[in-house]
Amino acid sequence: MKKRTLLLALAMVFSASAAFGQVKPLPKSMTEAEKDFITNHYQEYRESKLEPLTRAGLRLPQGNFYGPAEFEPSDGVCFSYMSYTSLIKQLIKFVAEDEIAWVVASGGSSWYGGASAESVKTELRNAGVNMTNVVILEYGLNSVWMRDYGPWWIYTEDGDREVIDFKYNRPRPLDDRFPEKIASILNVKNNVTDLIMPGGNFQLDGHNVAIMTDVVFDPSQGGMPELSVPQLEKYMKQLFNVKKTIILEQMKRDGTGHVDMFSKLLDDKTIIIGEYAKPSDGAEDNYYILNRNAEKMANETNGKGEKFKVIRMPMPRYNGTSYSYTNSLICNNKVLVPIYGFDLDKVALDIYRKALPGYDVRGFMAKDVIQANGAIHCITKMVMKDPLEIRANEIVDARSGEEIYIEFEVFSTKELDKDNVSVYYSNDSEGPFAKTEAVEIDGKFIAAIPAQSNGTEVYYFIEAENINGMYETLPDKAPQAGVLSFIVK
């Protein structure tokens, strides 16, 4: 199919969901028009996912790197402000108390409306949101399901974060390009892949283990039936340096088959798995599927070789809708849990509070959004924190004949190797550079440069390393890309 024909087919997919100017939000599951498109035009659908590679070329991470887990430190959360805005406003308000909320105003979308940037700002202010922690992005999107098309992250050995750009398992091209947009805004590398992997079907333990369901192979969900398990494992190795991929069974009749509809990693060795009270409570054989998944995880180990601890979470009875308490979000010390007005809501919140003492666990009414086959996890996506950052004040008082003290702070998502926090200095911008080790005092590091004569220009840079061997310099990529300096007076 030529590109023009493909674009017309995609346009038909969206126009079938809106009639006479009335906008109908796209569900997390596929619409009938989307199902028909993928069934009858699967090869063209696959080609549409390869188009970014044609534009930019395949870009894979280089060197040593790993993918952080959701429960690791983050800068905040991305939201699409298109539908279910009553719930989304509450989530933004909670997140923006302490972290950044990146809110996409989709008024410029080609097919769907969405609010303008100014109207979003007004609504959030009126809701009492801390606007100092809100960043409004004007960008057209197709849907609200940020989890499935939003950016994934890796941390590289030189202390940088980069985006992994999965392909969305829906024919929704504006959504599919959002990782490229956020990477550009944050000025980080966007690693483009042709792997179709919805974010709701992907979990990382932070130690090179990935967990997903077999929906990744399912063409009826936009997956890749031609993909073998060894090929999937190769992708995981290339993109996240994953050493082990755990594939669970997808639930039936939940609309997506995603792993986040029945499971949740709380930390690197604790996972919640949903549980129906009796076989008749779950659609078809979901009662048995969840029990098998729980048994499998109880016999699996994380990336450190430790057995997973499995906590069972009650699942409300299926009544045409699959309700999920595991479709929650962990954002630093906050836990945002979907609730539905059932007696089980309190049980679910208590399980989170017991498993995560010291966290601020709150329930948010999600009975509307779950009808579209998703909940809180599905409409949110993390922006992971810069993994290793050095901050230092400018040297303004360097006196001749006296030692010069360099004071700085190091922020790391992993434990620092304090024996490898140092300052390098020279009287020549090209080096060679001498090393002086820093000592930590009251949470800050101080390194001493020997006394220099009046009028000497001293060139220096700071380097820090964590226990994983990840390192960072200030300035970035010093000394090759430049150094700092001061003049002795």
Describe what this molecule looks like in 3D.
The chain has 3 domains: 3-53, no CATH class; 59-384, L-arginine/glycine Amidinotransferase, Chain A; 388-487, Sandwich (Immunoglobulin-like). It is built from 11 helices and 26 strands. It has helices at residues 3-15, 32-40, 42-56, 85-95, 117-126, 146-149, 173-176, 178-186, 229-240, 286-298, 344-355; strands at residues 65-66, 74-80, 100-105, 134-138, 152-156, 161-167, 190-196, 203-204, 209-213, 244-248, 263-265, 270-275, 309-314, 329-331, 334-339, 360-365, 381-384, 388-392, 404-412, 416-426, 434-437, 439-441, 444-449, 457-466, 471-474, 484-487. The strands form 7 sheets. Strands 20, 21, 24, 25 and 26 form a 5-stranded antiparallel sheet that branches. The chain has a 4-stranded mixed sheet with strand order 1-5-6-7, sandwiched between helices. A 4-stranded mixed sheet has the order 4-3-2-17. Helix 5 (117-126) links the parallel strand 3 (100-105) and strand 4 (134-138). The longest helix is centred in the first third of the chain and has 15 residues, at 42-56. The chain is elongated and about 85 Å long. The model is unreliable at 15-22 (pLDDT under 50).
Mind telling me the C-alpha Rg? 25 Å
Q: Any idea what the CATH architecture of the largest domain is?
A: 5-stranded Propeller
Number of strands: 26
Fraction in helix = 10-25%
CATH topology of the largest domain: L-arginine/glycine Amidinotransferase, Chain A
| Uncertain segments | 15-22
Kindly give the count of domains. 3
Residues in β-strands, percent? 25-35%
Tell me, what is the CATH class of the largest domain? Alpha Beta
CATH level 4 superfamily of the largest domain: L-arginine/glycine Amidinotransferase, Chain A
